Amino acid sequence: MKNSSGFSERLTHLHYCSYGNRKFINNLLQTDPYLSAVYSVRKAEVIQRCLSPNNEKIKSRMYKALENSSPRQLSEHLQSKNIQPITIYDRSYPDLLKQIPDPPPVLYASGLTGILDLPCRLSVVGTRDPSEAACNDIKQLLPDIIKVNTVIVSGLARGIDALSHRLACEREGYTIAVLGFGHDHLYPKQLQPLYQEMLSSQLVLSEYPPYMKAERWHFPERNRIISGLSMLTLIVEAKKKSGSLITADCALEQNRTVAALPGRIADTFAAGTNQLLSEGALPVFSSGDLLYELNRTQRL
């Protein structure tokens, strides 16, 4: 059965050994739905069939990794690092995330996984170099949201992301960080204290196996998870080519609501958010605007 611990361990093992290659995992599940053939004498044949021809280096590494470890060994290794894998077939996998076009087959979770059971979440993203006005706006908006047990979801980046996480921690609320790298390679290093605090009292998720370092394409890729965990995504202070706008695009593709803080016309850091508003994003002038929309989406 796909919801059995044995199947989840095999899926996590294959995901881990394939560098989190979603295409490989999806192909494998189509050809080997219970992930049993890949652990038989047909191992090389199955890997060959499920990876594209130009991936010879990855095929070789995968074969060695599968030969040198077992699902049970990996499970014990992750447990020793306080990392809990959550597969898309597990009951604890977030329902909202299952609904997006390209959900991660495995999430590597550290911290309080029970936070995923809380029904209401707000995703918050914005510039890494926020203005004083934007910081003040967030400090004014989020406390009322946090107070009603809304989980704040963000990306543990400098600026708006880190501030949103800190406010949730300071107000004894709940927050989820979605990483663009594996748990063993925090980036940037200056966020280590916040990361450690979140491991002990909040929740940190990554779709990347722990050994994977940050790559530039990981960050726009993980944005679909930030928006996918919530029905409402708030964009705070973004330039016209900001990565935050990628998160907004992801939310719209997922049929989720995008909200934005209005900014001054001449402010280049507000050009992206003002553009979103001109295209129909929800304007936010107070915490009441967010609370109304959160309540509305909860009733859908």
Automatic annotation (TrEMBL):
Taxonomic placement: Bacteria, Bacillati, Bacillota, Bacilli, Bacillales
Protein name: DNA processing protein
Limits of the Smf/DprA SLOG domain: 86-294
One Pfam family in the UniProt entry: DNA_processg_A
Gene3D superfamilies noted in UniProt: 3.40.50.450
Organism: Salisediminibacterium halotolerans
Span of the signal peptide: none
Record GO biological process: DNA-mediated transformation
UniProt similarity note: Belongs to the DprA/Smf family.
